[in-house]
Structures are given as C-alpha cells and as structure tokens.
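Entry: DUF885 domain-containing protein
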Amino acid sequence: MTRRSRRDLLAGAGTALAATLAGCGGVGESLLGDDDTVSYDQAALAEVAERSPPTRPDPFPLSIPPEAMDRHRSRIRTLLGGVPESPEFPNEALSAELAEQRSHVADRFSELNSGEGSSRESRDEYSLRPSTDRERLARLRSVRAEAAGLDAAYRAAIGAIDPESPRSRRESVRSAMYDFLASWRYEGASPLEALLVHDFIETLIAAVQRSLRRGQDLPEAPRSDVFRVSDVAASVESAEAALADAMALREAYRDSLSEPTAYRPRIEAAAEQLVREFEITSSRADVHDYLDLNEPPFTRSIDGTPAEELYRAALNLVDDDFIRGRGLERQPAKWSLQAAAGLAGIETFRTVIDGIQAGEYGVPDSATEIASAYDDAVDALRMVWSGAPRGIRIELDWPATDVFDYRMREFREEVTEDGGEVPTRLINDVYGGLKHTFHYATYVPPVADHLAGVLQEP
C-alpha cells in the first residue's frame, strides 16, 4: 500500500465515522481459513524490529512547577539523611537488608538527579513515549515513598518510631483531600484544556485514594516487624506526596489563567452523554453477542493467526466495564476520555469483525507484509498526532500505542537477543498488533472531534 493510499484509507475511515458515529448494525459469518507456517527473510525482519519508534508528543498543556520537584527532592534527602549507610544491629540479616535498601533508594535518587533514566534511550523497553516531566515527578514520588519506608523501618529497628504518627498523618491527608475535592471546580482556559489538565489531577487524586485505602496501623511490636512498619509509612508518604502534587498543579494552572472558568458541570455532562452514546453504539453493533461467548464465533478457527490477536485486542475495548470501571463516574475528565476511547474501540471492533469475515488477517506471506503493516501503523499514529484538537487526539491514542509498544518490544527482543528464526506465533502477534494500531488510530480523529463538540455544548 502506498503512502497516498494509506492516507486515503485513513481519511475515509474518519469520514465514515464522523458521518454516523453511532450507526451500523451487526456482523455476519467468518470466511477465514487456517494458515500454514511460513519462513521469513530474517534480515528483513530484523530491519523492521530495529527501526526507531516514532516519538509521541506530550499532550499536557501545563508545565510542572519546579518547586514541586524540589519539594520531593528535599524530602528524600531528609529521609535518606536519617539512615546510616551501614546500619549495625545484632541481627546481621536486618543490617544487610537495610543497607541494601538504602543503597537502592540512593542510587535511584542519584539517577533522577543526574538525568539518567529520563530519556527514552535510557529505558529498558521499546517505547513511543519519551519521558516527560509528569513521569519524572511520578518517579520522584516513588523514590520518596521508598525513602520514607526505609526511614520508618530503621527508626522501628532502633525503637524510635511513634506508633501514632502514621494514623494521625493519614487522617490529616484524608482531611486535606476532602477539602481539595470540595473546592475542585475544574477551572481552565477552555473546556478542552481543562479536560486535559484535570484528567491528570484526577490521576493524582486516585493515587491518594489508593494509598489511603491501603492504610493500616503499625504492628503492636514495631521493632519485631520493621518491614511492615516500612509499608505503612510508605503508603502514607505516597498519599501525602500525590496530594501535594495535585494541589500544586491545580494552583499553578489556576494562576496561569487570566480568566479562569469552572468547567466541572460541562465535563460531567460530556461524560454522561458519551457513556450513553457508547451504550447505544455498542447495542447497535451487537457487541454483547460476542462478549457473552467463550470462543470466537467464526466458521473457521482463527487460533494461531493475526486475526486472533486482532479479535482479542478489539474485544477488550468494547466491554461495558471499559467505561464503567471503579470510580470513573467520580472522575469526569477521565470518564469522558474513556468513553470516547470506547467509541473508537467499537468502530475498531466492527472493522476487525468485517475483515475477519472477509478472510483477511491471515499469516503474512513475507517480511514485506510486516514492514507494510508497520508503515501503515506509524502513518496512522502520525496523522493522529498532527491534527487538531491535538491534545485530545493524543490522549485518546493509548489503545493503539500500548499495543504497538508491547508487540514491537517483544519483536525487537526476539530478533536482537536470540538472533535465530522468529517464531510464527510472534509474527502473528506482531502483525495483528500493527493492524490493530492502524485500525484504532484511524478512528481517533473523528472521535476527538466529536468529544470536542460535546464539550463545547452549553
């Protein structure tokens, strides 16, 4: 397929969905047959596997305040400073474990401060996503929680832990979180920008809530169970750190606005409308006819073919649980985005079912087909990233980019580490994953346009 024909197909898919977002009916019988094992040009496969991934832009419209980073660094230094590099206790195993943990935390902190581990090239895994300031902030919170756990374990071991401290700190964080929730108006410069910023703040608040749910009191004898003390302290520290980031980001964003407007009611209304549309569209696409089955309902087996990977990946996006996960209704920005992703997922599912019925997605005949599927997927992703509303498009692309990253990472590891013939099973998974990326990405632009239109409604 040429670059022009790929772009024509991308545009055609978007036009069709934009014209009838919630249209189309059921699907029919499968025509797919079994495929034989194929040998591939290993050098050609390696060429695809070793390509550098395209760089996904960061859609977040707000810069992370430097003081938020500095606050975590200062706290980590204080916590590490309270624990000797080589603790000495009668229990040598305890001494060794605490020393090893301190070294681990200190090394992680040093790497973050030096910039190591911050770029995509330093990551262990293949990824479209370069590291962002939001991720660096998250890593600092993680190191801070580990440092707090280490500090608490050491203080428990020397008998200097306050048994009431974790409980009182946890209640203080909980109270501050409720105050935050009560005053949270989802202010922004526009509904779209507010959606993006407050979606991330929702992620932080969800992290606070998870940490508080894990909360427990210290053991009756802290000195004899120092690592349980560590877990308790780390969970409280994690909640406190995430809440501080949520507060700092909301304040920084509000301060950057000349005329801040509260958009929470509009975002909540958008979420409810998009969820209704997902349910209606799901019903018209006969999605539940597939969800209720234990096996794919095709006349010939798709086991061991790219169609199986495609079918499973597409099916994951159309379950009602996808948009009715725990707590989503209390996170209107995230709920809006999830429901919109679900709409693109339904269209992807329809396309996949139609293709399977037409006998498509068999085992590729050559490495050339895999290279072509890779080019199609990358073209589709770049089209998503290049258009407007850009931030919303990028936030909706994760069902495509997650599969792309996972399958290409697996492919690269197999080709570069083993150096032998790539199993047909992996070829099928990679080819199916690339096709999934292409199909889902084609539906992101019209769905993003639709979400933007819903948000603009008074």
